[in-house]
């Protein structure tokens, strides 16, 4: 039987993945500022399949509150326009030829509160992911100790390392959330 190995770096890497995922999700949350990443989740019905918007057009930010979408294929303009409207981002494109202009409306107080709640949900999901990684790590350490592959002292030391990595990952998640919350609430 192959004995299990414990690698603290693997645990840290998996925890880092949770905060990177959170960063990506928070990046997609709309604040009052325009960001090209806002349109990343938009899927367009094009050429008989679903395609990400960035494979059909160039997204740029000419002004802080304006997105510009330059569609490469003239025949795809209507499909891109429909995908943006259907994406529930609350954006309505103004089309000029192959260029779609998207004004980013001011956020009202209620919308800001909703966005903060969504950000909290994302952060909680990331914390849960980190805790799952912690539990997996602790289980592996317990198994190794039970199988007498590591000493009780090693088990305690490794448990502390995992806990330290967990605390660091959760602190990073809390910091990401605090920054995003501040960004959302800034008028």
UniProtKB/TrEMBL annotation:
<dbReference type="InterPro" id="IPR002661">
    <property type="entry name" value="Ribosome_recyc_fac"/>
</dbReference>
<keyword id="KW-0648">Protein biosynthesis</keyword>
<comment type="function">
    <text>Responsible for the release of ribosomes from messenger RNA at the termination of protein biosynthesis. May increase the efficiency of translation by recycling ribosomes from one round of translation to another.</text>
</comment>
<keyword id="KW-0963">Cytoplasm</keyword>
<dbReference type="InterPro" id="IPR036191">
    <property type="entry name" value="RRF_sf"/>
</dbReference>
<protein>
    <recommendedName>
        <fullName>Ribosome-recycling factor</fullName>
    </recommendedName>
</protein>
<dbReference type="Pfam" id="PF01765">
    <property type="entry name" value="RRF"/>
</dbReference>
<feature type="domain" description="Ribosome recycling factor">
    <location>
        <begin position="22"/>
        <end position="185"/>
    </location>
</feature>
<dbReference type="InterPro" id="IPR023584">
    <property type="entry name" value="Ribosome_recyc_fac_dom"/>
</dbReference>
<comment type="similarity">
    <text>Belongs to the RRF family.</text>
</comment>
